[in-house]
Structures are given as C-alpha cells and as structure tokens.
Amino acid sequence: MHIRFFKYQGTGNDFIIIDNRELTFPKTTELIQNMCHRKFGIGADGLILLENDEEVHFKMVYYNSDGRESTMCGNGGRCVAAFAKFIGIVDKRAVFRAVDGIHSAWIIDDVVSLELLDTSLPVKKEPGYYIDTGSPHLVIFKNDLDTIDVNLEGRKWRFDNTFENQGGVNVNFCSEPRGNTIYVRTYERGVESETLSCGTGVTAAALVTSYLYGINDSISVNTPGGDLSISFKRNSDKFEKISLTGQAKFVFEGKYWLS
Question: Would you tell me the Gene Ontology cellular component terms (predicted)?
Fold first, then answer.
C-alpha cells in the first residue's frame, strides 16, 4: 500500500500535503513522524491533510513533525490553499476550516494571502511579549540575530513553566524595525528546532512590533527562508483584518510506501 503525497513550501517552511477527502490516511503519530523525518522519510516541518467540510471548501488538519495534531499553522494554511487550487477545489479564493476557525485565502500565481483571526494585544512576559496568533508565541527582541544560536536560546523558553497551560510556546527572535521592516528567526514547538520561516510567528512578531513602535497597517518581514508581508488593523483592544502574504510553492509529488 502507498500514500500519494505532495510537497509544498512557504518561504522555506515545508510540508507534506495529502488529499484525504476519502479518509484513507492512517492518522498515527508514528507514521507522521516517519514521513516527516529528514533522514528516513520524505522530510518536512509538518504534515497537512485536506479533508471534506460540509460548510466551506475544505478542512485543514495540521500535524507538526513530532506527529501530534497542532494549533494553526500560517504558512501551512497558505500552502494547503495553493494545493486546493492545484487539485481544482478552488480557483482564486479558498475558504477553509482549521483548528481555530474559518480562514479565507487568495491565490494569485504562487503568492498566497491568508486571513488570520482577530488577535488580542500582546502581554509583557519576560523576556519578551506573549501573543496568540492561532498558535502561542513569545517574541524576544535581539540585536544579534545573525549570530544567535536559535535552537539553544529557543529551548530555554519553549518549555518554560510560564507557558505550561499553552503546552509550551514558540519562540521568535526579532530585530528592532528599520522603517516598517523586521527580521525574524523562529524556534518552533513540535518541530523542536529553528525553521526557515513560521507564518504565525512572523505575524506575532509584526503585531508586537506594531504595538511597541506604533507602526500601523503593514509590516514586511525578512526570514531565513524569504520575505513575508503582514497587514492588519489595530484598535484599542485587539488586532483585526490580519493578513499573511508570501510565496507558497509546489516542490514535488510522490508515493510513500507503507511497509
């Protein structure tokens, strides 16, 4: 028996995507871990199942590379929207259900703009700011992003007791803004390593930057995997109309054989 899969990446954040509308995929932790393994499997930061939904175009089910179903993945949402267009479910606009609610996405060539849900203003939590953009994030401002050991520093806070109720936290290291541009590197929980880009992470960093530096409407984000843009509206108690935009590209497809 084999599983047909498609590999996508959004600014270097890479995913195995499977059309599971017939519900044939065995949802076991071990299988997902093996498929995502970069030495013994296909290799990916996470795995996404596209499934049927009675009210919207499709449902997105997301697993981190540790094999556990996880919270919202921004770059994964952009990639699965591109995949839905590739297989003919949608055209330029996709509306889909994720673990945190309903999202819309616009697909133009290989650029996908994903609408995220409204987000409360960040809260000061040492050594940075906490905000939930569909997944829990800690944003720490650093001046030495090119030389920092993200894995070492990220692990210090990923499992900190402060974030126990959230199941731990993703850790984003962010530069101070230059104009409306920031640079972000992210340690992702569930991957337990730095990823080249994290969609909800760069969104978190952008919103915290807006909160602290008074930048309104949009922020550009450079990551090791490429550039993203976050647009938003800020009012007295929350951010709304949040949109994450960047490239989402098909890489290859194949068959994964089950032993």
Answer: cytosol
- 198 a catalytic residue: yes
Residues 57 and 45 in one domain: yes
170 is in an annotated binding site: yes
Instruction: State whether residue 258 is helix, strand or coil.
Output: coil
Give catalytic status of residue 73 as yes or no: yes
- Say how far apart CA 239 and CA 219 lie, in whole Å: 13
86-107 residue pLDDT tens? 999 999 999 999 999 999 999 9
Which helix (H) or strand (E) segment holds residue 130: the answer is strand 128-132
pTM of the model: 0.97
**Among candidates 133, 23, 171, 6, which has minimal Cα distance to 79?**
6
- Selecting among 36, 79, 174, 198, the annotated active-site residue is 198
75 in a labelled binding site: yes
CATH number of the domain where residue 188 is located: 3.10.310.10
Distance CA 174, CA 192 (A): 18
